[in-house]
Design goal:
The structure is a homodimer. By secondary structure, chain A is α+β, with helices and mostly antiparallel strands. Chain A has two domains: 136 residues, Sandwich (Jelly Rolls); 79 residues, Winged helix-like DNA-binding domain superfamily/Winged helix DNA-binding domain (Arc Repressor Mutant, subunit A), CATH 1.10.10.10. The first copy, chain A, is 42% helix and 22% strand. Chain A has seven helices and eleven strands. In chain A, the strands form three sheets. A four-stranded antiparallel beta sheet of chain A has the order 1-8-3-6. A four-stranded antiparallel beta sheet of chain A has the order 2-7-4-5. In chain A, strand 10 and strand 11 form a beta hairpin. In chain A, helix 2 packs across helix 3. The longest helix of chain A is centred in the middle third of the chain and has 27 residues. The two termini of chain A are 30 Å apart. Chains A and B meet through helix 2 and helix 3 of A and helix 2 and helix 3 of B. The structure holds a DNA duplex.
Chain lengths: 230, 230
DNA sequence: CGTGCAATTGAAAGTACTCAAGCCACGTGG
DNA sequence: CCACGTGGCTTGAGTACTTTCAATTGCACG
């Protein structure tokens, strides 16, 4: 979740901005407000008009789509600093829901886009953010299209470990269902994979949502091809 | 492939551009050159330095990643007008290969980015392109994560039909292997699904790469949940 | 010390994959 | 003009992996 650290100060002006940019930026800042949500609350629903865009101030938010039959695909989890809820269209493409209690800064979408257009600097940073997200999205395509259940779960755990900058006491901030929905698996499969990894001591669990990685190498081997290789 | 029609004239100036923008645009235009490739030729390889970015002038190009074990994930196919080969990094994230004989306009990446930064108009259009691509990419995540083999293939055929604006004599411009690599399936599974759809007369094949859709509704039903619903 | 939800486990049923072989259209050379 | 490769596409049989359905266990909370 914290991969685009730069985005934390996305909306702060540079000091040496041109007056035009400064004006857009201050307009944007003026449109901002902080909203708090309880874990489980919905921020917006797929198809809603999308007048605002958001940035996580604290907590974790997930964005997902629901299929007719009730299954879900979690597009992504957003942590502190990350921008979400901005699409090229006038309506939201996903449903967003607070996973933990959280605080979210909201900005008027039109002002945000205007600020981006008016400032080469904003524009550049926003482009970077979008391209990074596209990159992430494509990594996930490889994961969903080509990796086995064990590989997906292991890759996800590596990601969490990296994001949290620890190999001990890494936290699952989301439920097994959320993990499954993100990885394109069922909750049962996620459990079984975790159990098997426990059994092989690739990971050690303190509680269901708190684990440690004794040997990073071992976990990464699972990501490579411990199973279903070729 | 032709969803972002706007991108065709991505690099044409507006006429009413500011001089600064006009300058960037002409510099960019000056850096452009057209390169022709034969079907099967490689444009660049994952990891290559990425000094250029590209736009398809004719033909079809695929961008893909290769896994250690040789399997591939085709990220996308690009048709006339589409921009590709631009990443936030200095190196290519994918390998690009000509599927058909094709012609490609190449631009210097640094000039392209400068032109984008200097022009609100360019910037806006490029943002739209990126966001549209992000959108596509996420649709593909749903496909890879949540749809059965039959659903994926059917969805892909619907996409082709839409892109080519026909329901009769729709063409597969790529091989079965490419389709499989794109959909996260094996070539055999793609074949079996196609055979089954033929059998049920959801689609009719003239040749292996040319098919018609007698009843759009029927094909769309397959996309929904003809199989593996819930 | 129940209650209720999350997580885990088991057994059976699918679904897609692997490996292996057959088919077909097409271009080449005899 | 036809036999013979070649490469792409299909089909078959068996297998491995995931899901489905059904319980069971674990845990936080009142």
């Amino acid at each position: 979740m914290a991969r685009t650290a730069q985005s934390v100060e996305f909306f702060q002006s540079d000091g040496d901005s041109l007056s035009d940019e400064a004006k857009e930026a201050s307009l944007l800042a003026a449109s901002a407000s902080i909203i708090r949500y309880r874990a489980g609350e919905t921020l917006y629903v797929e198809g809603d008009r999308a007048p605002m865009c958001y940035q996580v101030a604290s907590g974790v938010v997930k964005e997902y789509n629901t299929l007719e039959d009730g299954r879900r695909q979690v597009a992504d989890f957003y942590g502190v600093g990350e921008i979400f809820g901005i699409s090229e269209l006038d309506w939201q493409l996903h449903t967003a829901e607070a996973i933990t209690d959280c605080a979210v800064r909201s900005y008027r979408r039109d002002l945000f886009l205007k600020a981006v257009a008016s400032s080469p600097d904003f524009s550049h940073r926003f482009l970077d953010t979008l391209m990074a997200r596209l990159h992430r999205s494509r990594e996930r395509m490889i994961m969903l299209g080509r990796m086995s259940a064990a590989q997906r779960v292991a890759a996800f755990m590596v990601r969490l470990s990296n994001e949290q900058n620890v190999t001990r006491n890494v936290r699952f901030l989301m439920s097994r269902q959320d993990i499954a929905d993100h990885l394109g698996l069922t909750i049962e499969t996620v459990c079984r994979v975790l159990t098997e990894m426990k059994r092989q001591r690739v990971v050690v669990f303190d509680t269901a949502r708190l684990f440690s990685i004794p040997d990073t190498r071992m976990l990464e081997d699972v990501v490579q091809g411990g199973k279903k290789a070729r």
